[in-house]
Amino acid sequence: MTVTVYHNPKCGTSRNVLQMLDERGVTPVVIEYLSAPPDRQTLVKMIADAGLTVREALRRKGSPYDELGLDDPKWTDDQLIDLMLEHPILINRPFVVTEKGTRLARPKETVLEIL
After folding, report:
1. Cα–Cα dist 98/4, whole Å
2. Are strands 29-32 and 4-7 parallel, antiparallel or unpaired?
3. 11 is an active site residue
4. In contact, 10 and 62? CB cutoff 8 Å
5. Model confidence over 36-58: pLDDT tens digits?
6. Would you call 28 helix, strand, or coil by DSSP?
7. For the domain with range 4-114, which CATH number is right: 2.60.40.10, 3.30.420.10, 3.40.30.10, 2.60.40.60?
8. How far is CA 45 from CA 28, 82, 102, in A?
9. Helices (H), 9-96
């Protein structure tokens, strides 16, 4: 089974997910999304497949969320996606994609649902 992790090496949860996968003998494809963000189609699909709204997939802490005023309901999903692509730090993480589904692995144990 192919497992893809959209990873931020500075994120403890993201590192813990990689460790959990390693302990289970899973070697994932690791995409450091800050330097190699997903394209629009991939991001939209990951969010939908994880059963999230675009707003639920936004990272607030440590990102330009507040500075951009993204809590304002004026922002459409398309505009929020555009901002996530422009500022990949706005993409919450880690997203994990397998043949069984996609999850935002928060908490990290959520990844077990799709292994």
Report:
1. 7
2. parallel
3. yes
4. no
5. 999 999 999 999 999 999 999 99
6. coil
7. 3.40.30.10
8. 19, 14, 9
9. 12-23, 40-49, 65-68, 77-86
CA 92 and chain centroid, separation: 5
Q: Who's near 79: CB < 8 A, 6+ residues apart?
A: none
Which residue ranges of the chain lie beneath pLDDT 50?
Answer: none
How far separated are the first and last CA of the chain, in Å rounded?
8
- The catalytic position among 11, 20, 30, 52 is 11
Contact between 31 and 97 (Cβ < 8 Å)? no
> Six-digit token pair at 41?
């189609």
pTM value surpassing 0.70: yes
At 61, the amino acid letter reads K
C-alpha–C-alpha distance, residues 31 and 28, integer Å: 9
In the block, tokens 């996609």 appear at: 102
Q: Write down the residue that tokens 């994990």 correspond to.
A: 96
